Amino acid sequence: MAIVVAASVPRLPLFPQIWKRNQKSARPQLLHCSKLGRLSGMEVHQRNLKSIDNEEEEKPNDIWQLFKEAQQNILYLNKQRLLAMEELERLKNERNLLLDRVEQLEMKNQANVRRDKFTISSELLLRIDSLVLNGVISSMEASDLRRLIINARGSSADDLYGLNYKNDAEFLAELHHLSKNSKKNGFHIIHICTEMSPVVCEGPLASYITGLSSALQRKGNLVEVILPKYSCLNLDEVQGLREVETEFYSYFNGKLHGNRIWTGVVYGIGVTFIQPVYYSSLFSHDKVYGYSNDFERFTYFSRASLDYLVKSGKKPDVLHVHNWHTSIIGPLFWDVFVSQGFEGTRILLTCQDFDSQCLEQPEKLALCGLDPSRLLRPDRLQDNNKSHLVNILKGGVVYSNKVIIMSSIHSKGRILSAFGHGLELTLDIHKEKLVFAPRGFDKSTWDPSCDNILPQSYSVDDMKGKSVCKVVGCIYPDILDADIEKLKTLVWMASRRGVQFIFMGSSKSPSMRRELEIFEEELKDENVRFIDEYDEELSHLIISGSDIMICPLFDDPLLQVPLKAIKYGAAPVPLHSADSRFRLFGDDDIESTTSSQYINHTFANMSLGQAIDEIKNNPSQWNTRMIDAMEKDFSWDSECADVHISAYATAKRL
After folding, report:
1. Which residues pair with residue 200 across a beta bridge?
2. What does the DSSP 8-state code read for residue 462?
3. What φ, ψ does residue 332 adopt, rounded to 5°?
4. What is the mean pLDDT of residues 493-509?
5. Is it the case that residue 378 has pLDDT exceeding 90?
């Protein structure tokens, strides 16, 4: 859509004052002949001479006056020309801003259309769940109807929109009508997890669930999420939240217990919330994790999720479970549920890290219906180091068809050798099922070309919105004491070279905050600013306004500062440039993700001093480096989503 703005400048007569004067100042005429007849010849002669003398005296004055007026008119016209140029420039800027705004609105409108389609189809699927739970249709019929909706997602949003406003009979009849034009497209994936942004956020899992699910749906897959109904949920972004008017029962501790079911849509993703009735206290805490009965809480939820799938008749292609909290679904699925209509379903486990694994007494497995005697074995759930305990995360690895390990920097060999936290043997045995995926970010929120938070947007084609001003930013969730000392050294070194620093943290540690306060007092430098509260909007401004971002961690699971910095044309520089944590190890290169290879080779070994020197001494090389970086796509939609889709396809073929 092109918009042309034309500006016109009022046309003025050239030198208007001179033109006017020339009309009045014609050469004086000699005296009229009638008057001359009354004068003597000598008088006439003298008078004519006097007239000529007066004319000669006035002539230089007239010329000087004409020159002065011409000069004034030249200045006037020049001023008018400058004003016209300024007006044209203002109109040009307004035109560009208007075009950018139109483009942003068109992109937003397209995103809303896509999200509406996802939202509508998710609402329809949730309505089918309600019909099954209320006994209106059978689970087998529900399975067929879900496939119809999944296959009909290629239709326009208008085709699906009216369905939800029909009564049950009309609703079912219209669904059958859709089957004529439907065809299979993509996978049906159900996440059974404990976090989802922005509903419940504790760690990197929350943004991963929402970001990946949205990306997968944009690529033609259907994604649903099942969550516990915590008392601490943020329900502001849940569209159409409602309670299904029936209870369903799940097994726990030898009995069937009632649960309330709530459904809604988050960013186009259908979400089901499970709320225990008898065990209502399990999810009534102020926090998500960190309680002595966490195993019981999440085991109850995992078993209830599988019972709900049976009751609702859902038969997804993939059940996607996460970390140890829902890893128990692996052995539950294969030992108890696979024969209940899930023969075509496969299990995929994602591990954000291996720090937390959950070791428990074997007899507790019986709470959810598992047989402890069958699972306390080295090749199943028995912990590798404490043989009298079961390791729940290990069970997830053993019983999953594929295991995705999230890392934006480390290679497969590096993780297996150094970051297994006691699971190295298990990971080595099951290394063929391991897949590595980089983290990502939401490109609809983090894109300098359409970022509404920035005072002026910019892109690789027009970098006016990002001026090089030698600002170094640092955004960190937590930082070690040793890192603070390293940070001090870097700041002392760079501030002497006229570099400005801005730090923003989100640490809740009082001791760390005090350390940074002392550091700020020691510096007393107006070129260094500290902000001790994390602010999302301010983080956009810091990253976009910085040329360099110091990163305490390159594999930043929570904030993804290195990936966002690259997108915004700021170089991510490791706090410890010589630290082996950021280096690639020879043969491991072939087992790394594409994004990790790029980050390692381009930025991981660059020190702050080297970056500053390149900006100062070789700006063209720096600009080329950063423009190349900005053209990379490290969002959820890129390599991360592709790796997951490939893993789903491989798991389905098993």
Report:
1. 196
2. B
3. -60, -45
4. 79
5. yes
Peptide bond connecting 198 to the previous residue in cis, omega within 30 degrees of 0: yes
Give the CA radius of gyration of the chain: 37
Query: In angstroms, how far is CA 323 from the centroid of its own chain?
Result: 22
Q: How confident is the model at residue 587 (pLDDT cuts 50, 70, 90)?
A: very low
Helix axes 16-24, 41-133, angle to 10 degrees: 150
pTM of this prediction exceeds 0.85: no
Strand locations in 341-433 (E): 346-351, 359-360, 390-391, 402-406
437 strand-pairing partners: 406
**Amino acid making up residue 399:** Y
Cβ-based neighbours of 228, under 8 Å, separated by 6 or more: 194, 273, 274, 275, 282, 283, 297, 298, 301
**Half-sphere exposure for 647 (CA within 13 Å, toward CB):** 27
pLDDT tens digits, one per residue of 77-113: 888 888 888 888 888 877 777 777 676 666 655 554 4
What's the token pair of residue 330? 């692996």
- Closest CA relative to residue 357, chosen from 321, 320, 396, 331: 396
Give the position of tokens 């209502």.
280
Q: How many CB atoms lie under 10 A from the CB of residue 302? A: 26
Count of CB atoms within 10 A of residue 564's CB? 26
Average pLDDT in the 205-219 region? 95
> Tokens 């100042």 identify what position?
25
What is the sign of the dihedral through the CA atoms of 213, 217, 221 and 225? positive
